[in-house]
Specification:
Elements (H helix, E strand, L loop, with lengths): L11 E4 L3 H13 L3 E4 L3 E4 L5 H7 L7 E4 L2 H13 L11 E4 L2 H9 L13 H9 L7 E7 L5 H8 L3 E12 L4 H9 L5 E4 L2 H11 L5 H4 L4 E4 L2 H9 L6 E2 L5 H15 L1
Parallel strand pairs: 1-2, 1-8, 4-5, 4-6, 6-7, 8-9, 9-10
Antiparallel strand pairs: 3-7
Helix pairs in contact: 3-4, 5-6, 8-10
Length: 265
């Protein structure tokens, strides 16, 4: 973290990510003097029908590569292995590619090492790194959530590489938080809104779309996005971010917020 002094002191910062991931971000905000307000706009849950997950994981050893794109993906992958009593060892597994430092850390906490970690935490960079390592005879298991981008399986498919896109968990709209969100914005009780994924933006708009005048409530609120993909989603929704992280992590997002406030001061 940069030496921020009191740049975040008293700043009310909305954390919109899922409850399971909000705590660590809130802690970082509070360590910098900010006030974290958690209103999770996403709920993470297992798919209702998990038959395809069981069938796919029973043949995990037939894949050349396993691609994990999030902490949730890592957690659900290993949870399902346990549920179905499937053996998965460091000496008998596909090569593993992960997106992002936190995903890598989650994998390592499970006792496994990644064979490929792209420098940039986006699908485009993962694709570029993967095509240097795979050929048409390889099969890839992409294990992720239901809102993952289609770029990776489409681009690899165009090259004739077989990709199985396995949905391990679902990101769903958290309707329970609609009233809290509206009250927070209408009462002007927040200074900065953070979006840590495209789905946080989409759900934000979905929860507010039938509320008159909600866009006016954003006029004096700083909008901060974790990276260019989330920024693009926000702009397409008619929301203009003032801050976009260059390191696509919550720590990088917080750094970008602090630097933005510092410049204005």
């Amino acid at each position: 973290m940069p030496q921020a002094g009191s740049y975040l002191q008293g700043k009310r910062i909305l954390v919109t990510r899922a409850k399971e991931q909000a705590e660590s971000f809130s802690k970082q905000i509070e360590e910098q003097g900010g006030i974290a307000i958690e209103i999770p706009l996403i709920k993470i849950q297992s798919p209702k029908n998990t038959d395809i997950i069981e069938k796919t994981l029973l043949k995990i050893h037939t894949y050349s590569w396993l691609v994990l794109t999030s902490i949730n993906g890592v957690q659900y992958f290993f949870d399902f292995l346990d549920t179905y009593n499937i053996t998965f060892s460091e000496t008998d597994r596909p090569k593993i590619a992960v997106v992002g430092k936190k995903t890598l850390q989650a994998l390592e906490q499970k006792g496994f090492l990644a064979d490929l970690v792209p420098d940039d935490f986006v699908a485009e960079d993962l694709f570029e790194k993967l095509i240097e390592r795979v050929d048409k005879s390889d099969t890839i298991l992409l294990a992720r959530g239901n809102l993952g981008r289609s770029l990776l399986p489409e681009k690899l498919g165009e090259l004739g590489i077989k990709v199985d896109d396995l949905i391990l968990y679902e990101n769903v709209l958290n309707m329970e938080k609609q009233a809290d969100l509206i009250h927070l914005l209408e009462s002007r009780s927040v200074d900065i809104i953070t979006f840590t994924s495209s789905s946080t933006v989409t759900n934000f708009v979905e929860l507010l779309k039938e509320t008159t005048g909600w866009r006016k409530w954003l006029e004096h609120i700083q909008i901060a996005c974790i990276g260019p993909i989330t920024e693009k989603t926000a702009i397409e929704a008619g929301i203009t971010p003032q801050v976009v992280a260059t390191e696509f992590t919550v720590a990088g997002l917080l750094d970008a917020i602090i630097e933005s406030i510092g410049r204005r001061n």
